[in-house]
Amino acid sequence: MTGHRFAFPLEKVLRLRRELEEAKARALAEARADETGFQEARQALVQQRDVGRARLAAVHQQGGAVGHIQNLEYVLERVADQIRDADEACRRAEETVTSSLEDFRAAFVDRKSLDQLRTRRKAEWHAHSTRNEQKAMDEVATTRHVRGSGASTAQER
To answer: Is-contact 28 107, C-beta < 8 A?
Structure first.
């Protein structure tokens, strides 16, 4: 078996599993980035709401005009609507991350299983190859020994 190389019959499948795992990892990274973006946008809305509430409280204390107070309340209601929408977007993004993580884990396990099978098969191939090489060397040594013994027996006669 000297000179022969190890060939894993599922090498193409293993390569495809690696590519799938990489694609799932990219999808997970994108989902996490999207989730972070939605969370940051929600946080900005919460800050905007807090600033609006403080402004409304200040206008109330100063006895501001009714129209101004109504306008601030309207703006705060719209911001509250946007926060609810942002909450929903964050929830969907979190679900996407969870789903992407499950997909990635499944792809990882599939690829890892094939990697382990390849490693075992390569070790078996290597052990078989080593046994065959040892057999061949033993045969050569035996042949040389028999020839050497036969030559010394012929010289002794």
So the answer is: no
- How far is residue 103's CA from residue 20's CA, in Å, rounded to a whole number? 10
Own/partner contacts of 133-136, CB < 8 Å, gap of 24 or more, are 133/1, 133/2, 136/2
Q: Distances in Å between the alpha carbon of 63 and those of 14, 60, 72, 93, 156?
A: 73, 5, 14, 43, 131
The distance in angstroms from the start CA to the end CA of the chain is 41
Rounded alpha-carbon distances, angstroms, from residue 21 to 10, 18, 61:
16, 5, 60
pLDDT in tens, 100-112: 999 999 999 999 9
65 three-state secondary structure? coil
Phi, psi of 97 (to 5 degrees): -60, -45
Round to whole Å and give the CA distance between 101 and 84. Answer: 26
Indicate the pTM of the whole model.
0.73
Tokens 């946080």 correspond to: 43
